[in-house]
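Usage

Read records sequentially. Each one opens with the input sequence:
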Amino acid sequence: MPHPKRRQSSTRRDKRRTHDKLIARPFYIDPITGEATLYHRVNLTTGRYKGQQVFEGKEE
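and closes with the structure output:
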């Protein structure tokens, strides 16, 4: 197995890791149920997407 000839500097290592951060996913509060929902997802409790009824929701 090949090994690196020289040690990588901390700057070079950190430049490589700039894209490894966690991002906070944006969400919105559903006006009907009041629960937090991710964008571009159907709300499974109500069965609505962008204000339109897509399918019958689950009854809990």
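Summary fields computed downstream for this record:
- DSSP finds one helix and four strands in the chain.
- The beta strands are 27-29, 36-38, 48-49, 52-53.
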